[in-house]
Structure formats: C-alpha cells, structure tokens
Amino acid sequence: MKPIGPIPEGYGVLDGELAVAGVPVSQMGAEAGRTPFFAYSRSLIERRISHLRTSLPDRIKVNYAIKANSYTPLLEFISGLVDGLDIASGGELEMLQQLGIEGQRVSFAGPGKRDAELEAAIAAGVTLNLESENEATRALAIADRIGTTPRLAVRVNPDFELKGSGMKMGGGAKPFGVDAVRVPDLIRTIVDAGCEWRGLHIFTGSQALSAEAIIEAQGNILALADRLAREADIALPKLNMGGGFGIPYFHGDEPLDLDAVGGALSRRLESLPELLSEADFFVELGRYLVGEAGIYVTRVIDRKESHGETYLVTDGGLHHQLAASGNFGTVVRRNYPIAIANRFAEEPAEEVNVVGCLCTPLDRLADKAFLPRAEVGDLVAVFCAGAYGASASPSAFLGQGPAAEVLI
Amino acid sequence: MKPIGPIPEGYGVLDGELAVAGVPVSQMGAEAGRTPFFAYSRSLIERRISHLRTSLPDRIKVNYAIKANSYTPLLEFISGLVDGLDIASGGELEMLQQLGIEGQRVSFAGPGKRDAELEAAIAAGVTLNLESENEATRALAIADRIGTTPRLAVRVNPDFELKGSGMKMGGGAKPFGVDAVRVPDLIRTIVDAGCEWRGLHIFTGSQALSAEAIIEAQGNILALADRLAREADIALPKLNMGGGFGIPYFHGDEPLDLDAVGGALSRRLESLPELLSEADFFVELGRYLVGEAGIYVTRVIDRKESHGETYLVTDGGLHHQLAASGNFGTVVRRNYPIAIANRFAEEPAEEVNVVGCLCTPLDRLADKAFLPRAEVGDLVAVFCAGAYGASASPSAFLGQGPAAEVLI
Description:
Chain A folds into two domains: 11-40 and 291-407, Lyase, Ornithine Decarboxylase, Chain A, domain 1, CATH 2.40.37; 70-285, TIM Barrel (Alpha-Beta Barrel), CATH 3.20.20. Chain A is built from ten helices and 22 strands. The first copy, chain A, has helices at 25-32, 42-55, 72-79, 90-98, 115-123, 133-146, 183-192, 211-232, 258-270, 287-290; strands at 11-14, 17-20, 23-24, 37-40, 60-65, 84-87, 106-108, 127-130, 151-157, 167-168, 178-179, 196-202, 205-206, 238-240, 280-285, 294-306, 309-314, 338-340, 350-355, 364-371, 379-382, 404-407. In chain A, strands 4, 16, 17, 18, 19, 20, 21 and 22 form an eight-stranded mixed β-sheet that branches. An eight-stranded parallel β-barrel of chain A has the order 5-6-7-8-9-12-14-15, surrounded by four helices. In chain A, α3 links the parallel β5 and β6 (84-87). The two termini of chain A are 34 Å apart. At the A-B interface, α4, α6, β10, β16 and β17 of A face α4, α6, β10, β16 and β17 of B.
C-alpha cells in the first residue's frame, strides 16, 4: 500500500457524496455535462484570499499568476478579488483583454517574449518585467516606434534560492531575469531612456511549504532590493516579491503557516530602508490561490484484476492531469490526494491502482491506494487539481480532447 | 559539457543549412509561416517503411499506431504505405473516418474504451482488441443492440516483458489486456457468442534498441500465441505482435539492427505451429515509422549570460516538445539530438543551454550542449520530433498555443 496525499480543507460529505460549499459532486457533474471534468470552487478561492488578506500586512498586495489556471469564468471571478494579474505570454494578455481587464493591473514576465508580445503589452500599459539587457533594448525601441512610454521593471536573478522549494528560480545560473550584479546598470539605462520606472521583480522559487524558508527568502529579497536600489541610486515604486507559497500534495506534507509568514513580513515592513519606504509590495501567487480549490473528476469505466492487483480504469488520465500522473517535474511518483467521490463517506476497503484510459503505462492517477470499494460507473476525484491541471496537460494526446470545466 | 543524442540518418547540409531530401530548413519555415514548427519528411517515412519491407519477411504486415503522430497530411500519406492503422480512442477513429479510411483496416486498443467508442468502432467494422472480460461483455451487448457482428480480438497481458524497453507493457500486473491465464476462456466466450474472431494482440513494450531483446520477445509472443490457441482450441486468423522497435534519442544509443530482427522472424515463420499457420502477422509501429522523420524548429529570441553560462532562449519549449524537456516518462534528463539549423555546416564553438520561452525551469531543450555559436534570430532544430511531439505536449500551457506543422 502507498499513502495518498492529504485531502484539502473545505471538502465534506453530503448524502454520502464528496461536496464543497454545499454542492455535491453529482451536481457538479450535471453542470459539467460529462466526465472527466474539473470543478473549481468560488467559495474555496474566496476563503483562501481572505485568509491571505488577514494574515499578511495590509500593505502587501496580492497578484494572481494566471498561468496556474486561466479558465475564463475563474479568471473573471478571481480578478475581482486580487490586486493585480501576472501573465507569461501574449496569449494570456489576450485572455485578460477579452475580460476587459486594464493593462495597468497587469505585469508580464517570461524569458522569451517575442517582439509582437512586447508591443501588445506596451500598447496596453502592461508592466514588463525585463528578463535581459537585450529585451530592454527591444522594448525601448518598440515603445519609441509606437510612441508610448513603456512601464518597465527589472526581473532579478537573485544570488539565493528559496530553500525547499519545488522549483528553484534563483541561486546560480538561470534563464530568468538579470544577474543581480548587472541590475543597477540596467536600471540606470531604462530610467535614463525615459521609461515609467516600475521597480523590481525578484522570484526565488515555488511550491515551498516551510514558513521559515519563505520568511528567510523574503528577508533576502528585501535586502537585495534595497542594495540594488542604492547601487542604482533610485527609489523603488514597486517590489514584486514573487510567491513560493506551496500547497500540500503528498502524504506528510503540512500546510504552510501563513500567519507566521505574515507576522515576519509585518515586522520587516515596520523598518523599511529609505529607498523602499514608498514602494508598493506585491506577492505573486498562482497555485496557492486556486490549487486546492479544484478537483478533477473521472468515471470508472472498468474494474479489472491482473496478477492479484485491482485496477480501476477511468475515462480520464494524464492528458488532463499530467502532474498527478507523476510526469511533470517529479522524479519519484507519489500519490496525490484521491477519493471515490460518490462514496466519500465510506471506509477504505481495498488497495487499488487508479489508471487513465490512455494506452501507456505512464497514465496512472494512484498507485496501490487504499480506497472504498469502487464499481464501474463510480466517480474518482483527484484533489489539488485547480492549478496546472487542464492548462498544463497534453489534452490532445491519443485524440482524447480536453476535459469539461465548471466554476461552482 | 553534456553530450547530445545522435542526429538521425537522412539529414544533410544545403547552402550551410540543415536540409532533408533537398529541402533546406528556411524553405520549411517559409511553408510553416512561423516558428516554432514541426516538419515531417515524406521521404524519410517512405525510406523507413521500405527498409522495413525489405528487412522483414513478406508475410509480416506493418500497422501504423496513429497515436505517435496524427497530423492529418501525415496520416493521409502514411495510410497509403502501411497495411493497417491502430487507434487508441474514438477521437482517433474520427480522424481516420474523415480521411475515408475503411474500418476493416483499423484496430482499436486501449484500457478505457467508453460505450460510445465501442459502438462507433463496431459500427465501422473496426477490430476491437478487448482489454478485459467486462469490455467483452459490453462490446457483445452493444453489437447485439445495433445488429452488427463485432470483429473481436483479445489483448493479452503476457507473463514476460520486452527487455530493455523504454516502457514495459508486460511481465506482471498491468492495466492492459487480459492476464494470459484467463485468455482461453475469454476466447471461447466471444467465439461462442458469434463474433468475427480476429485473433490476439500481444504487446510487450516499446522503445527497445536491442535486436536480441526484440527477437527474444517475438519468440515468446509466438509461443504464447500458440499455447493460448491450443488451450482455446482455435486457429488464429491474426496475430498483432506489437512493436517495441526503438529509435536512438540519446548519446550512446545505437540504431536497432532491423535485418537481424527480420532474419530471426523469417526463420520462425518457416516452422509455424498448426494453429498459427494461416494467421496474418502484424507488427504495430508508431515512433519507429515517424519519429526520426520529424524535426521541431524554434527561433532564438534572446542570448543571455548568467553566472558564466550562456542561454539561448527560444520561442518554443516543452509545450510542444515535452519529451525533449525530460518531463515525459524519464527520470534523468538527457539531451535529444539538437542543432543550430541555419548553421548546420559550422563547427561547435561554445557550450550553451537551450531553453524555451516558458516561465518555468522545466522548460529546457538542451543542457550544456556544445554547438556552433548562435545569435538572436537563428533556428534551433530538435531531432526525433516526429513522434509524441505535438500531440503529446501541453500546447495550451501559459497561453502559448500549438506549433505549426508541415509535411515536406
């Protein structure tokens, strides 16, 4: 038997079924119209953001990194709850423009921005987090050509990392941002060129569960921002401190202690150095806002035995939930939290492998998991599916096509 | 420095550029209209299939598993060169039907076939490779309801594996097929129910480069097929022996010795047991037919330095080439064959990291590769991109959208 990850807070039982905010999974399915589907909970997103607002100092603004989940209704909903939105491509900018979101609320990071993307962003008044000196030159030339003052920030490749993070974005050679040592010169160049100076973006890593590590990284970020501002001899109007707040996916993972992070940040903001004293401070979060608010639901098509093991074969799979299959940035496959959604009140009774419908051994949703006995037609829910699920999976693989999505 | 994989045969230089069958990469790009793009070579596909035809005994038929690459023009082209087509979903059936391909040429394997998929396949005269007793029951009931005689084969979960294969599909508990020990009973059930009996499908693994391992697996497959036919007391009209023929991706990989495989198979077919003597024999190949015939081409957007390392940032990435990034079924990331396509005649001159445009450290196309010096605007080609590239990658990730595709 292999353990499964912890089921996030906010999920309960209603008439024996998995439910969230009073909506049972059968009702979500009726709304989706078919399986497999993703269901995202407004209530859980709201609760998470409100927890952030109470834990973090008032001065900290919250940005949503839309790469985590850009399902249109979710994007529309969350854009009313956060202070700003972070994008990573021209395609994501178009999504926001279609919702009528002002460019002034948006910033754009990404190491490979095409000229057309730079132009669209500058024209829309989006803040560009510059990733290199070359990109700065291109952005200034484009802004000059279209007669717009560009809103420019510099993304810093910091000399330190976020300890224990799932993905490290700093501490050594990286494709992201500009090495800290070269940042002051770049600041002077773009400020002298007449841009609207928008400060710094310092991202150190993602998916960290240790408050201590995040507190340490935030301290380093503030110190680095101050040092760079002093070297460039300019005040910071804005500091994007990145995110890094993780969510528990696997057995043994503990939720991040948000109050500890907020407390430490409060104390730091009380004694800011002069060049940071007027800055707007942002955290940029994706997964932390929406990851636990989503489930992926797929139906059992077959129940079969092979060499003494039981397989539940579902109509879903890695084409919708690549990360849960263990094929996205993970070395050792571990089980996400998973449940038989229409038997959520039943006790575990057997060890099963839950697989997808694809004809590849990679397509596995749970390995030797201890679950209530499930039959053909039952629903399997995979939790922590609100971020990097639908959008980060190869939905066209084997001609399957995308899952349905609903916001409940 | 880390080595890169071997560049496949058939690629050469034309006016300093990478070219295949007389077409330089700039001409492919003009046809594609934008970067990034995939280019697939008719000539290399033809050459590979003709090599198969001369190496394998005449009696062996060749099926194409369309999951490897279902780009419509490629599918149309290859369907004229192979004997049959293998699908893994109702979506793939629709692709073939849109091309006017007869159901009689098609067989359908996959552990999670929905009722609607079974019905569409039975109605079209497609052979179903049954994956379980439940699936047999469902297929027979559907056929009865729609008044059609179903064409049924049984997919066997063999007790042995293909040694050294990239993915093992046999040898122990598996979600695929029916354990060999239960196959004779299932054969009797479906034959007694009046189906059109289509024999067995025995798939042992994929992506093996050792002729010896494939020869051994094929011997085991023939012996198992004979044993199961004798136990069920029925002749086999067809035996799908699976594939498993690998292609070299990484440094040190040697191409499969196809002549050795063909020679051994010839000798085996000379002395077939009675119940196999009238069978049609098929190999089912995907990657082996198209993998090396395709390249993925992306443009350098930025060239930057970080802590002494050089990064070429391209407009492509893992959203089109997940496998090359090392995030699809691989534990240790290794470099695919890669080249600066518009400087294909130049000598390597520097060590670079080639990354995609996505804002994640996972998005890496080459690690510390020794390549000719490349500038912004140059083209990077990733080889072995003809199979499991476009279709097996999360093209919507970060709002990027799919790459262009051309058949040349």
